[in-house]
Amino acid sequence: MLAFTAITILSSCGSQRGEEENGKINIVATTTIVADLMKNVGGSKVNVTALMGPGVDPHLYKASEGDVTRLSRADMVFYNGLHLEGKMVDVLEKLEHGGKEVVAVAKAVNEDKLIGSTEYASSYDPHIWFNINLWQKAAAYTAQELGKAYPEHKAAFEKNAETFNRKLDTLKQFSHSKINQLNPQQRVLVTAHDAFNYFGQQYDFKVVGLQGISTSSEAGVKDVQNLADFIYKRKIGAIFIESSVPERNIKALQEAVKAKGFHTKIGGELYSDALGSPGTGEGTYLGMYRHNINTIVDALMLE
Ligand SMILES: [Zn+2]
Questions:
Q1: Which residues of the chain have pLDDT under 70?
Q2: Distance 133 CA to ligand 1 centre (A)
Q3: What's the whole-model pTM score?
Q4: Which of 99, 123, 184, 211 is deepest in the core (most CB within 10 A)?
Q5: Chain centre distance of CA 265
Q6: Rounded distance from Cα 212 to ligand 1 centre (Å)
Q7: Cα 249 to averaged position of ligand 1 atoms, centre (Å)
């Protein structure tokens, strides 16, 4: 009986979750976008580290040795899922099998709301954060999962998620009213890779990515020609580069359109799979999203 009590006390006051000295829950997230969600929902209870920095492409990212150490020391690991982090699947699965609490935020979204894709082993497009409605579900899900692991902070996580979701409501209103400045014919978004299908789903945009959904397949000459034909026929005035994808393919596309006798301009840089630098406006999800909306609408309106 005594031995049993001793063990119980040890395991309940021991640092089995490895909480840091400052008492915060140590969370490791894969992308800057997932890390932003964790900061918003975890608030003052968590310390969040993102493995990937600004401008890093999650489709191609491989975990370094340092990453594996950070992941194994984390109290909880959050990632996007649906094979966004296509080269980290094994590492994440190993952690989970080893007993680590590993959460894919995409689990928040019901399959009927996901956009199908043959590009991924998951069969779905992973870029869910571009539909704000889905990101609100991800926030509520994050609060739920954090609350399960740390019931003592459950109420705080739920309150944080509600606060964040209200900000997302405001962002939605802003986005819809800005996009309403474009007529339906102007709502065509051509970017470096297919990250914006959920954006298209939310705002009734036709979305075309030069590189298919994942950046691991290089755009071929035929893809460039087909898309150049499309831009020429539709007289699309602007196409967009992305911060986490090299711009050479979009430049090649612009040249191919020029060869047909039409000028399409580079409408600016969009943030797709990574946020901007910390401390800048685009370093948060809310700022990144506003930047994208303003860049897209301003460029396409000036046709
Ligand atoms: Zn992507």
A1: 1-21, 212-219, 303
A2: 19
A3: 0.90
A4: 211
A5: 26
A6: 9
A7: 15
Q: Which fold has domain 16-174?
A: Rossmann fold (3.40.50)
What is the 125 CA–ligand 1 centroid distance (Å)? Answer: 9
* Amino acid at the residue 250: I
How remote is the CA of residue 231 from the centroid of ligand 1, in Å?
Answer: 22
How far away, in angstroms, is 10 Cα from ligand 1 center? 45
Q: Ligand 1 centre and the CA of 229: distance in Å? A: 24
pLDDT in tens, 117-139: 887 788 999 999 999 999 999 99
CATH of the domain spanning 178-301, picked from 3.40.50.300, 1.20.1260.10, 3.40.50.1980, 3.30.300.180: 3.40.50.1980
Phi, psi of 171 (to 5 degrees): -60, -40
State in Å: Cα 50 to ligand 1 middle. 17
* Distance, first Cα to last Cα, the chain: 80
- Closest of 157, 124, 156 to residue 142, by C-alpha: 157
Type and span of the H or E element at 238: strand 238-242
